[in-house]
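Job type: complex structure
Entries:
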Amino acid sequence: MLEDKSPARTPLDQLGEFLLIEKLTHSFTLQNTSSVVGIGDDAAVCDFSAGQTVLTTDLLVEGIHFDLSYMPLKHLGYKSVVVNLSDVYAMNAKPAQITVSLAVSNRFSLEALEELYAGIRLACQNYKVDLVGGDTTSSTTGLILSITATGQAAAEKIVRRNGAQANDLLVVSGDLGGAYAGLQILEREKAVFKANPQSQPDLTPYSYSIERQLKPEARKDVFELLDEWDLVPNAMMDISDGLSSEILHLCKQGQLGCHLYEEKLPIDPEVVSICEEFKINSSTAVLNGGEDYELLMAVPQSAFEKVKNHPWLSIIGHFTDKQEEAYLINGLEQAIPLEAQGWQAFPED
Amino acid sequence: MLEDKSPARTPLDQLGEFLLIEKLTHSFTLQNTSSVVGIGDDAAVCDFSAGQTVLTTDLLVEGIHFDLSYMPLKHLGYKSVVVNLSDVYAMNAKPAQITVSLAVSNRFSLEALEELYAGIRLACQNYKVDLVGGDTTSSTTGLILSITATGQAAAEKIVRRNGAQANDLLVVSGDLGGAYAGLQILEREKAVFKANPQSQPDLTPYSYSIERQLKPEARKDVFELLDEWDLVPNAMMDISDGLSSEILHLCKQGQLGCHLYEEKLPIDPEVVSICEEFKINSSTAVLNGGEDYELLMAVPQSAFEKVKNHPWLSIIGHFTDKQEEAYLINGLEQAIPLEAQGWQAFPED
């Protein structure tokens, strides 16, 4: 095997995803004037003269990103599209096209893939995007999905991760921790089902969280609200890996610190209740849970009144000077350094 | 498992790739005016006002599309990009950006992936395209690569698969069958190596064919030649699945027949010699071999003189009226119906 010939071996699990990407791509340089933003943001930006075009892609692997024992294929199709559109919205751009590639083993039937595509189609309808291409092939094991999405925006509307300013408000849409709480329920029910296939659990008390995990939505409404307000955040990204990890990204890219207030974290009562059931600290679910696909942004103080009064948005803190670090301020007014413990692309064995 | 719940099951191997894609996507409709061409061509076309943008994607799975026992990772990286750029050239567009997603198991080290990216980088340099994004994650088994490429062209320069006219010349670039012949050599040497790891075969007599298989090039030069001539073919596509299969595509999409002349098929002497060694009919290698990434086009008769005298191009036949079928005319002037026996995305077990 050629990949084993090299005498030096740095196992991927020692690197982490970001360092790996940096190592693999740091020697690439952009050659075309149409390439405005390359690797390192939610999506690539290309200048196609009238406005700019964003391009983003995700690869989803069975057994790594999804478990078909509790993820219906239609939901998987829907979610796979939504997570890409969330990246487009995170650039403050309007999604336009997607391509979908899939590799499947022979254990899948046409009807199974039709279910998958029914979910993709529903997402296309709900978000008004066009499926414009893809690739379909076989796999040796399981299902692999690769989705690419494009979006468009006027150049001055595009929002990067690196524009946050000291004193900007730290704003988040919706509530957090739900997708993580939903996953705990689904994993528990899977274990129960394995032990007793006849069990008929009542999942009604968990329906919001389960939906957050199985059928998340991208914040089209927040994107449209910002446009209506003519408010362009200084920085924005979507929350896929967990709030802590994403805030640290914005701080690092903007060379800033921040104060995040634990009491301001938006959380649904159902999620609090599930966390109690599982003896999880609900702030931990919010900070490290991931997969919520809410928008996190740095907003100028001048927008305080608008943002403060809107039910979709929460002001959870503010950015500070670069001399400062990123702190979580708890209920006792203790400042605890923020740590990233989100999704690991290459978990240790 | 949810994908097994459906009472009806149509195994994928009974469908074939094109029927599967049609079944999965026929109910999608384009919603945005910027979506000019969706599924069904070499690449999607998007109208971004100044010129048009093409978008194409490929998913490559270890054990299905490549064998790392004889495919060096650097070559794999190079080839993965090239096969996408070939699709962009097949639209008569100039490649601009790529995204690369990969899923890898822990058996790969950083150094192995750096080799892969060295090949990707070399392709980016040679073809002047920018890597602008991607996704990196783990897989349960093996290596999975998903590459998306964009390209641009003036709207009137874009060439679809469906524009061929009766009496158009059937023109192909380069020579064919080499990638297939190279694969036969590599598969044989792999078997020899397994039996006797000390064997030191002299592969020099096969170097052209092996390079066609391991390090193919996309026909940037032919794209530039067409531009220099100001010649826009009526239809064009790249040859990835085999000449027969691709000609039948052009005939079906243009609702035409064709006459293809066996004696006109371009083939390298080394490929003829390998075919003799393996007792393969060399025309079969040309017609069904695949992976040559040459350009196949329908060119108006008016360009006959230019095309006839150019060393990169061969006139191998012509299109006929829709009443006719697609025929291969052999050396005895017998007309044999053309059959597609190219690459199967879902081979039977």
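Summary: The longest strand of chain A covers residues 94-104. Chain A touches chain B through 95 residues (CB under 8 Å).
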